[in-house]
Every structure is written in structure tokens, then in C-alpha cells.
Design goal:
Layout: H1 6-20, H2 22-27, E1 34-36, H3 50-68, E2 72-74, E3 76-79, H4 84-94, H5 99-106, H6 108-129, E4 139-145, H7 149-164, E5 168-178, E6 183-184, H8 187-191, E7 194-207, E8 214-220, E9 231-234, E10 239-245, E11 248-253, H9 254-264, E12 270-276, H10 277-280, E13 304-307, E14 319-322, H11 328-336, H12 363-377, E15 380-391, E16 401-410, H13 416-424, E17 427-429, H14 432-442, E18 447-448, E19 450-451, E20 461-464, E21 471-473, H15 477-483, E22 484-486, H16 492-495, E23 505-508, E24 511-516, E25 520-521, H17 523-528, H18 530-533, H19 541-547, E26 550-556, H20 563-575, E27 580-586, E28 589-591, H21 607-614, H22 616-625, E29 633-635, H23 637-664, H24 674-677, H25 683-704, H26 708-736, H27 742-761, H28 766-780, H29 803-826, E30 834-840, H30 843-849, H31 853-860, E31 862-868, E32 879-884, E33 887-892, H32 897-918, E34 927-933, H33 936-944, H34 946-953, E35 955-960, E36 968-974, E37 977-984
Parallel strand pairs: 1-2, 3-4, 8-11, 9-13, 17-27, 26-27, 28-29, 30-31, 34-35
Antiparallel strand pairs: 5-6, 5-16, 7-8, 7-15, 9-14, 10-11, 10-12, 16-18, 19-25, 20-21, 20-24, 22-23, 23-24, 30-33, 32-33, 34-37, 36-37
The chain binds one RNA strand of 75 nucleotides through helix 14, helix 23, helix 26, helix 29 and helix 32.
Length: 1006
RNA sequence: GGGCCCGUAGCUUAGCCUGGUUAGAGCGCCCGGCUGAUAACCGGGAGGUCCGGGGUUCGAAUCCCCGCGGGCCCA
């Protein structure tokens, strides 16, 4: 086996999968229980980044895991292709600034074609870098697409169901609009777009009617809303004071008076009268812009003081200006008091002609003019700036405008109980995220599903032109065609889109002409019907019934108010239950400083870049293991290599080591079955066999709770700590020894462990595991499955598990560490053997440690390992000792002549090994060694340990004397001596070793 | 204004639910060692008022209260 080259093996493995059609075989049902997964469709817009990869890696990991447990997995892909995100980008591409331009300059047909083209473009990208390249085996050939006619029908279907249940209604309501995109936004969308914004902060005097120099002082950050002002609100139970300012009387909340005075820079003022808010109720005032906006002259009942609980006494003046057309609370208050709901702002954020002098101005332009006019009139007390959090369009960043308009709604507030009940049947991971979801559902509001856009599912609502109160809701294409008196000649995928749908005319027996409401549907409802639309569920009823409700979904935490909600909402509307059983809510991926990834900051790590740089499996390992799934993930590129690549390297080399010796000795797992050697196991064999089964069991426990990071860490710790660092270190001498067939015991145990490890790793690092499956398992068992991913996972074999042994082993390893620490303190290398180590502990502990004496002795390189209960044993000055947790470990300090000789021999061995490596010799190749030292001790040691040295370095001859021609010679410093060591292949072995025939006596080494 | 979560070494974190050895890792840093799979690795060391204060308790990183700081969500 070659050294690990991650990207190369990934490429090979991808090719292997493609050639053998492994993913399709993996997805093919085999009669097991069903694990149905529902793909949260990525928006086909923008390039995937590591945040997307995190989610997709979880999906793949979970699916592979369950597939290996014997489940049939349903792994259909899906794409979210419509909506504002796509439109916004197409507008940029076409250089369009307003919606009107789309209609007039571009034309809807071309615009929709461009949307389709853009989707196609990004789809290819997502298929490659966010799917294929990371080994995600979703079925993309049969992926659902929200732009298809067959899909859109289900959005219609659910809307019609809502209509039948009287949950669909149209209403007049104040909503946030994006003036640039010219559409309303849902609550969830508003949530996504809060940003800092600098706004004007103005204090305005409203002149009290009939009062002499009496004013209501109001504060606002949106001067333009004063255009549609209809009232002023006060808190009914707050105290208000009358401030005397330069001969005028201003009404201000008492609590805020001091602050307001400061803010306005008033030098002398006094609170001359205090009265309760309720006493202000009914006071009439003059609209400050009455002259500029004629329509206010007709609002006889308006422009008065009302009381409202929502009035804030924390900021402003305690008197709130009310524009029922521009604030949700204002709207409710206005409706309650019969005020006119004035909204002279059009959907594009420009005032219409009713706004008098403000007609034709944008809201910002109007704000400036308002300030100017009020200033001239002497009604502007102060005009400052303020930075506050304000909602912006989540797609294009434009500040939102609240205005009243007619829209269509789903009456979700009526379904609160049903939603909560549905959620009861859902397992939410991690648990902490459940609260959020629950509280969102508990306070859910009606859902504005209409959007004034183009590239989306058309709202299937038609109005009778003869009687506007009559509504017809269409639930399928078939139904549409049944009522159609005029149909454009296009395929269904087009028919269900604007502009074609707009030319459809319907006729029924009771109405000759139905006209479609000019809206499209909120995209969240598109993806929200995926549970049925993805499989065309009404036509494929049997399949649908098997899948529903889906076993598992997972997305990031922002989808709580997005997809997780829209799925459960649509499903509850149609059938009253949740469409999924388990939901794993992931945290977001941030940059390494914990900042959000954004184009603006330039800190986005894109999928393509990351995969090319690190390889898919190191990235997967890192994403799966570094943080708990529900936590934010601080992505640090430097860590990927450190954490993942090195671990994979170790695992790879464990397999290399095993393969090398197994091959050398002609090991065959079929001939040398583990069962034959069970009676001959060494203690460390028993231990590693126990460990691998314990890890298997613990892994499964963690997976039940989706504690993915801990599960994966557990595996890697086992591979690196237990298997590589401990087990292989212990068994190396047994593998080298040719005296008995004990090495086959090691091979049998090791093979068992490695094969199990591979299966455990397969869902984590699928390419890497497959490469080892092919190179290692299929090498020794050619008739094994063609892919590790098509095999069944092994269950933990409880008969192999020995918890007490594992516990004691851990203690023994700790003792070996303590001894290493003692050596470190004494300055004696591990290479040098020591005469005796003593462990002092309680009888019970000693009894358990007894079988592990040789393990500790080998790891610590001591001749004799003494267990003693009597603490006095090593209290003499002859011992160096350390103590921890009731155990004392000590080491006999003296190095006698025999030990010294042995140590020198080992020093020689080590030098020869280095030279073997330099000569690139195979592990089995024999050599001849000649040693010439100016130290009598070294010479004596070589002579005395000649056989030992020969065995260790695989030499057919160890000669004392000057190396001759044909030897590679190096001069080494061994314990102050100059020792020249010559190494060569035996002449009988044939050809010369290139570059090693020249004797270089003077070369210094070591 | 309300809700939820978090605060442990320079950085990233485990432990907290279920109180009990000397608070455990990884990275980085310093010193040493090992190396017939590994451009790998191993050992040791320095570095912690477990955010602050109060309480409960024989005993608190852990449970309770208050405060400070941060994040997310809702209004």
C-alpha cells in the first residue's frame, strides 16, 4: 500500500463507484425497514459554502449509518427553484431596477426564461460541489423540483384544502414591504433581515386645537409616516406633565421629561402641571401637514388623542404618533376607533397623488421634505440622527416600508393547538432547540401567503368579474383545464407559471368569467408541501403512505421559522399531523473568529475551494466531529488539516502496517480464523477485541441521540489511541518474531478489529473507508461485497466485552506513563532497559494488574515488574517514585553493567535501523553488518548481544571489524565513542544497491 | 420590555442535568524522547480567582438567588 494521498484516493473511489453503479445499489430497497429522509431543498441560487456542506454531510452520514444498520433508505434529492432570491439575481444580471422595467423592457416570458436558466446554472454547481464531490448519495436523477407543474399542483392542492377548511382569507393589513422588490414579506422573512440603520430622529410639536400655545410633543424616526398621521396615542395610566418652555405648554410623559429636555437642550423648563394619560384622551390637534395634504381636511373624526397600552415610556416622549396605514399596532388601534386607514404610499415606496405635495416622492424624499416644511412652520423642535435595528429585505437589503394593503392569508392562528399537538409527535434534536420551535408555534400568526412577484407558484385564486365577492380556488391542473374557456398553447410546466397562467380564462355555470388574483405564493409554501409534492403523492398513493411521515429531516436553526414550520403548517392544514418524526436542528457555520460568513466581510469559505484544498473526507471528518450538531461552528481552515488529515493518516498507516506483515506471512482471514486462536490470545489481544466491541456499542448509543460529534470522536480516539499507539506498539515484537506462529494470533485479532473499524468509519469518511475496503479487505477476502457501503454494520459482540479488563488496562497504561515520566525526570531514555519497576497499590488493584505486568514491562522497558502492597518497598533512596490516585510507581535507579551493555546494543540497533531506512530496504530484506568502534564497551556489547542485534535488524551476519567495500558506512557517536557501522545487502542477494557501494568513512551521523 | 442559551488555560472546548479524587482534552509555546506503518508519534513542563457576589451543603465549576458580559429569538 502506498502512503495516503487523500485527493487521489477520493478520485479513484468516485470513479469506482461510478463504474460499478454503487450509489444506485445502495439506494435500492432490499426489504428492510424504511428510513425515509426528506431533503430540505437548497435554493438553486448562489454558490454552496461550507455552511451548506455541514448540513449535507450530516444528511449523508445519517443516511449511510442507517443503511448499514439494514434499513432501506429513501434519499430523494430536491431543489427549491422559485421565488425572490432567483428573481433578484436575474434582475441584477439583466440590469433591471424596478418591476415596471421587467414588464416593459424585458417582458415576462423572457424574464421567466432567464429565471429557469439561472436555476439550471446553479443546479449543476450544487450537484457537483455540494453533492457528488462530498459523497452525498442523494438521488439527484429523481430529485423533486419546485418549478415543475407536477410539483406546483400540490401547492394549489394545499391552498384549496385551506379554502375548504375556511382557513384561507383575504384581508387588508399592514405589512412590511420591500419597495425595491415590490412585494410583501412574511414574518419569517422580516426576522431574517434585521440590520443596523441610521434614521432621522425628530421631535415635532402638534398644535392642540383651541389651546393657546399648547402642543403635543411627539417623536418619530420615520418622518414620512406623518403624511398619513391620523392620531396621537398616550399611555392611559402614565403621568404626563405640562412642560413650560418659553411661554409654550408642551405635553410630555413625566418619566421622560427630564431626558427629553436634555435631548432638546432646553435650558430652562418646568413641569407646571401633572395629569394622568386618560385625561388627555379626546384632545384634538391640528395635523402639522394639513395644508400640504388636502385629504386630511375630510378626516373630521381623526387627529385626536387616543389611549393605548403599547405606548412606550422607555423612549420618545410618551406620545406616539399614529399612522394606521403604516404600523401594525397603529392599524389595529385605528380600526378600533374608526379612524381612516390612510396609506398614500404605493408598493414601490413612492407616494401617490393623494399625498399632496409629497406625491411622487419616495419615502426618504418625503422624510426630507417633511423635515423642511415642519422646520419652516416652527413645529420641528429637533432633528437628529439615530442608529437602531430596523428590518431590511433579506434578499436585497433595502429598508422595509410598512404599509396597508390587500393580501391573502392562511389563518394559522386558528391552528395553534393543532400545530402544537402535531409537534408532540416530533423528536427534536438537540432538545434545547425544541423550546424555540414550540414558542414560535404557540404564538404563530396568520401567514401572508401572497406575493406581488413573477417567478413563483401562481396563487390559484380566481374572482368572479360579475360578483367580486365570489371566489374560486383551483386545486390541480386538471381542474384548471376543466374550467378553462381559454388556455395558452404551452406545456404544463409553463402553464402553471406567469405570464401564461394570467391568460387563462375560466368559466363555470354560475359565472361567465373568472379573473385570477394577481399574486404568486410565498416560496416557503413551495418547499412546505415537499412531503407530498416530492413524490407526487396523490398519484403515487402507496409510496407516499409508506414514506409519510418522514423519519428524519435536518437543516440549520434558521429553518425553524422557515422550512420546519412551513412543512408542519402545510401538513397540519391538509391532514392534521406533523410530516416528520425526527428533526435535527443544526447551528450555523461562522468564520474562525465567530463572525457570520458574508460576502461583505469576504470570509465565506466556498464548498469548491474547501473540497479542492482539503479533500472531501478530511472536511467531512472535521465538520462531523468538531462541534455538537446544534452548536455554532467556527470554521478554521487551519484546523481541518490538523484535526482530520493527521488522524486519517494514522488510520491509513495502521492498515499499511497490517497489510504489509499479513502479506509477508501469507495470512488469510478465512484460513486463520479468529475463532481458532481464541484460546491463545494475549492479554492485549483480549483487550483490543473488547475495546472494539465497546466502541461499537457506545457509538450506537450516541447515534440514537444524534450526538454525532461525540460518536465520531469516539471512533477516532479508538483508532488513534487504542489501536495505533497502544495495541500496535505492544504487538510489534510479536509480529517480528518468527519463532512461533503467535503472529497469526495477532493478525487474526487485528483483522477482526480493522474490518469492524472500517465499517464504523464508512458513514464518516466514505471515500477513505472504501479505498481501504478495496485495498485491504477485498485483498484478503476477494469475494467480499464490492463496496463497504453495501455491507451490514456489525453489532457489538457482548461475549468479547470485558469491562473490568478495559478498566484495568487503562490503569496499566497510566502506570506506564508514570514510569515514562520518572525516566524523563532521571534523564534515562526509554531505549535503555531498567532492572526493576515497582507498583504499590491495594491488594484488589494488584490482583487485577497481575496479568498486565508484562504489558507495563514492555511499554516501560523494564526487566522486572514487581507488584507490592507494602509501601515501604521503594522508600529507600535507590528508587525514584511518583504517586497518583492511590497508586505509587517507582523505578530502581541504578544501571548495572549488564543493563549498560544491553543499552549499548540497543543504541547500535537503532543506528542500523536508521541506515536500513536510508537504504530503502524492504522489511524482509536481509543485511550484513560490520561494526568498528573505538570504545571497548561498545565492542563488548556488540559481541555479547550479537544474536540479539542480528535478530533485531534482520542481519545474516554481524561482524566486528572495519567495513569493507560494498558497505554503506556511517560514523556514529554512541555514548562518547566513535563507532563506524557498515551495512550491505549480502552479495548473494544479487544486484548492487544503487548509490550505496561507495564507502564513505568520514561521514558523521547521529 | 419578555423568553431561551452561554461565560472553564492565549485560542477551541469536556465536565454541570445526577454536587464528592489534584477541573480533563486539543491547538499554540518550552524541554526531552521515540521511530524495521506513519513528513508520523510519545513523555514532561509552563499556563485556570471555572465571569463577579451571595446562599444551600460536611463539601459547589456543578444546585439556588442577584449582578456583569455575550449570543439567539420574540415584542
Amino acid at each position: 500500500m502506498p502512503p495516503l494521498d487523500v485527493r487521489k484516493i477520493e478520485e479513484e473511489v468516485r470513479e469506482y463507484w461510478r463504474k460499478k453503479g454503487v450509489p444506485a445499489k445502495w439506494r435500492a430497497p432490499s426489504g428492510g425497514k424504511l428510513f425515509s429522509f426528506l431533503e430540505g431543498p437548497p435554493t438553486a441560487n448562489g454558490y454552496p459554502h461550507v455552511g451548506h456542506l455541514r448540513g449535507r454531510v450530516y444528511k449523508d452520514f445519517v443516511l449511510r449509518y442507517y443503511r448499514m444498520l439494514g434499513y432501506d433508505v429513501w434519499a430523494q434529492g430536491g431543489w427549491d427553484e422559485q421565488g425572490l432570491p432567483v428573481e433578484v439575481e436575474v434582475e441584477k444580471k439583466l440590469g433591471v431596477r424596478t418591476k415596471r422595467e421587467i414588464y416593459e423592457r424585458i417582458g415576462l416570458e423572457r424574464f421567466v426564461e432567464e429565471c429557469n436558466k439561472l436555476v439550471d446554472y446553479y443546479l449543476e454547481y450544487w450537484k457537483k460541489y455540494a453533492t457528488e464531490m462530498i459523497g452525498l448519495w442523494l438521488d439527484l436523477d429523481n430529485a423533486y423540483e419546485t418549478r415543475r407543474g407536477r410539483y406546483i399542483e400540490y401547492v394549489w392542492y394545499v391552498i384549496k384544502r385551506a379554502w375548504e377548511r375556511e382557513l384561507l382569507y383575504e384581508g387588508y393589513r399592514v405589512l412590511p414591504f420591500c419597495p425595491r422588490c415590490e412585494t410583501a414579506l412574511s414574518d419569517a422573512e422580516v426576522d431574517m433581515g434585521y440590520e443596523e440603520k441610521e434614521s432621522p430622529s425628530i421631535y415635532v410639536k402638534f398644535k392642540v386645537e383651541g389651546g393657546d400655545g399648547e402642543y403635543l410633543l411627539v417623536w418619530t424616526t420615520t418622518p414620512w409616516t406623518l403624511v398619513d398621521n391620523e392620531a396621537v396615542a398616550v399611555h392611559p395610566r402614565a403621568e404626563y406633565c405640562v412642560m413650560a418652555v418659553g411661554g409654550e405648554r408642551w405635553y410630555v410623559a413625566r418619566n421622560l421629561a427630564e431626558r427629553v429636555a436634555q435631548e432638546l437642550g432646553l435650558e430652562s423648563w418646568g413641569c407646571v402641571e401633572v395629569l394622568e394619560g386618560l385625561r388627555l384622551r379626546g384632545m384634538k390637534y391640528e395635523h402639522p401637514l394639513a395644508n400640504e395634504i388636502p385629504l386630511h381636511a375630510d378626516h373630521h373624526d381623526a387627529h385626536r388623542v387616543l389611549d393605548a397600552e403599547f405606548v412606550s415610556l422607555e423612549e420618545g416622549t410618551g406620545l406616539v404618533h399614529i399612522a394606521p396605514g403604516h404600523g401594525p399596532e397603529d392599524f389595529e388601534l385605528g380600526v378600533r376607533h374608526g379612524l381612516p386607514v390612510t396609506s398614500t404610499v404605493r408598493i414601490d415606496g413612492v407616494f401617490d397623488e393623494r399625498a399632496g405635495v409629497f406625491g411622487g416622492l419616495s419615502v426618504d424624499g418625503a422624510s426630507k421634505l417633511v423635515v423642511e416644511i415642519l422646520s419652516k412652520k416652527g413645529l420641528l423642535v429637533k432633528c437628529g440622527r439615530i442608529v437602531h435595528r430596523y428590518p431590511h429585505c433579506w434578499r436585497c437589503g433595502t429598508p422595509l416600508v410598512y404599509r396597508a394593503d390587500r393580501q391573502w392569508f392562511m389563518a394559522m392562528s386558528l391552528l395553534r393547538e393543532d400545530l402544537l399537538k402535531a409537534l408532540d409527535s416530533v423528536e427534536v434534536f438537540p432538545r434545547v432547540h425544541r423550546n424555540r420551535f414550540e414558542s414560535w408555534l404557540a404564538s404563530v400568526k396568520d401567514w401572508t401567503i401572497s406575493r406581488s412577484r413573477i417567478w413563483g407558484t401562481p396563487l390559484p385564486v380566481w374572482r368572479c368579474s360579475e360578483d367580486p365577492n365570489r371566489i374560486l380556488v383551483i386545486g390541480s391542473v386538471e381542474e384548471l383545464k376543466r374550467y378553462a374557456s381559454k388556455l395558452p398553447d404551452v406545456d404544463d410546466d409553463r402553464l402553471v407559471h406567469r405570464p401564461w397562467i394570467d391568460s387563462v380564462e375560466l368559466r363555470t355555470s354560475d359565472c361567465s368569467r373568472w379573473v385570477r388574483e394577481p399574486f404568486v405564493v410565498d416560496v416557503w409554501l413551495d418547499s412546505g408541501v415537499a412531503w407530498i409534492a416530492s413524490v407526487d403523492g396523490l398519484r403515487n398513493r402507496e409510496l407516499f403512505e409508506r414514506l409519510f411521515p418522514y423519519t428524519f429531516i435536518t437543516e440549520a436553526v434558521d429553518q425553524t421559522r422557515g422550512w420546519f414550520y412551513s412543512l408542519i403548517a402545510a401538513s397540519v392544514i391538509d391532514r392534521g399531523v406533523a410530516p416528520y418524526r425526527q428533526v435535527l436542528i443544526q447551528g450555523h457555520v461562522l468564520d474562525k473568529f465567530g463572525r457570520k460568513m458574508s460576502k461583505h466581510l469576504g470570509n465565506v469559505v466556498y464548498a469548491e475551494e474547501a473540497i479542492k484544498k482539503f479533500g472531501a473526507d478530511p472536511l467531512r471528518l472535521y465538520l462531523l466531529s468538531r462541534y455538537p450538531p446544534g452548536d455554532s461552528f467556527m470554521f478554521d481552515p487551519d484546523e481541518v488539516r490538523k484535526v482530520s488529515t493527521s488522524a486519517l493518516n494514522i488510520v491509513w498507516n495502521v492498515f499499511r502496517f497490517a497489510a504489509m506483515y499479513m502479506d509477508l506471512d501469507g495470512f488469510s482471514p478465512r484460513v486463520h480464523e479468529l475463532s481458532k486462536y481464541l484460546g491463545r490470545l494475549s492479554i492485549e489481544d483480549e483487550w483490543i477485541l473488547s475495546r472494539v466491541n465497546t466502541v461499537t456499542a457506545e457509538f450506537a448509543d450516541l447515534m440514537v441521540r444524534y450526538e454525532v460529534n461525540r460518536a465520531v470522536q469516539l471512533l477516532m480516539d479508538f483508532a488513534v489511541e487504542d489501536l495505533s499507539r497502544t495495541y500496535l506498539k505492544l504487538v510489534r515484537p510479536r509480529v517480528w518474531s518468527e519463532e512461533s506462529d503467535d503472529r497469526f494470533v495477532v493478525y487474526a485479532a487485528l483483522y477482526y478489529v480493522l474490518k469492524r473499524l472500517l465499517k464504523l468509519l464508512a458513514p464518516v469518511v466514505p471515500h477513505f473507508s472504501e479505498a481501504l475496503w478495496i485495498r485491504f479487505v477485498k485483498h484478503f477476502e476477494p469475494d467480499e461485497a464490492e463496496s463497504v457501503h453495501l455491507t451490514r454494520a456489525e453489532r457489538a459482540d457482548e461475549r468479547m466485552r470485558k469491562p473490568q479488563l478495559e478498566e484495568t488496562f487503562r490503569r496499566a497504561l497510566r502506570i506506564a506513563e508514570m514510569l515514562a515520566s520518572l525516566r524523563n525526570r532521571m534523564g534515562i531514555k526509554i531505549r535503555w532497559p531498567m532492572r526493576e519497576a515497582v507498583v504499590i497499590a491495594e491488594e484488589e488493584v494488584l490482583r487485577q494488574l497481575e496479568p498486565l505486568r508484562s504489558v507495563v514491562a514492555r511499554l516501560s522497558n523494564v526487566k522486572s515488574m514487581v507488584l507490592a502492597a507494602d509501601p515501604s518497598v521503594c522508600q529507600s533512596g535507590e528508587y525514584e517514585s511518583a504517586q497518583e490516585g492511590g497508586i505509587v510507581a517507582c523505578l530502581l535507579k541504578s544501571v548495572d553493567r549488564d543493563l549498560y551493555m544491553e543499552a549499548l546494543a540497543r543504541e547500535v540497533v537503532r543506528r542500523v535501523q536508521v541506515m536500513r531506512k536510508e537504504m530503502n530496504l524492504g522489511v524482509a530484506e536481509l543485511i550484513e553488518v560490520a561494526i568498528d568502534s573505538d570504545s571497548e564497551d561498545v565492542t563488548a556489547a556488540v559481541s555479547r548481544f550479537r544474536d540479539y542485534i542480528a535478530g533485531e535488524v534482520r542481519a545474516s551476519e554481524v561482524r566486528i571489524g572495519v567495513p569493507r567495500d560494498g558497505y554503506l558506512v556511517k560514523a556514529w557517536d554512541i555514548e562518547g565513542s566513535t563507532t563506524r557501522i557498515g551495512v550491505r545487502r549480502p552479495p548473494s542477494s544479487g544486484e548492487r544497491i544503487p548509490g550505496t557501494t561507495i564507502t564513505r568513512d568520514e561521514e558523521a551521523g547521529g
